[in-house]
């Protein structure tokens, strides 16, 4: 290294440290922890027009889905897929009865989704989402895209129980 290069290095400003990734920014290959369980992020679905993502998480052979949404603060919901079927997205009811529990529609929206990695819907496109809640705070989520329904049952997760372990 030449003397001029060394002198230049003395007066140069160090590069600012990069901002750490938040849960909202995770992508396939990253590692996170939810309620003391370590997961690999294997897929990500991001809806345009909303500051939210659904992360596909794998813990061994078990697959879970973490809905991350930025409102006043980051909000987390952990879902597990369940069996079920609906025939027509135009006929989704405002109230659903499932396993002796009544769910009431909380939110309905649609938007274009971009997907990365392994997700229930492998192509981006228009997706319709219905979110329900029961009186005892159990959650239900329905997604419809390209003629296919997915159903999930879940629970809210407090922010202190979620953290990024390794982000690429």
Question: Which structural class do you get from the secondary structure elements?
Answer: mainly beta
The whole-angstrom Rg is: 20 Å
User: How do the helices and strands follow one another from N- to C-terminus?
Assistant: HEEEEEEEEEEE
Main beta sheet: strand number and arrangement? 8 strands, antiparallel, barrel
Summed over residues and divided by their number, the pLDDT gives a mean of 91
C-alpha end-to-end distance: 32 Å
What is the tally of beta strands? Answer: 11
| Total DSSP helices | 1
Helix-residue proportion: under 10%
Principal-axis shape equals elongated
Low-confidence stretches: none
SSE topology sketch:
Elements: H1 3-11, E1 31-34, E2 37-47, E3 52-59, E4 62-70, E5 74-82, E6 95-98, E7 101-117, E8 125-134, E9 139-145, E10 148-157, E11 162-166
Antiparallel strand pairs: 1-2, 1-11, 2-3, 2-7, 3-4, 4-5, 5-10, 6-7, 7-8, 8-9, 9-10
Short descriptors:
mainly beta
Summarize the structure.
With 168 residues, the chain is mainly beta. The chain has one helix at 3-11; strands spanning 31-34, 37-47, 52-59, 62-70, 74-82, 95-98, 101-117, 125-134, 139-145, 148-157, 162-166. Helix content is 5%, strand content 56%.
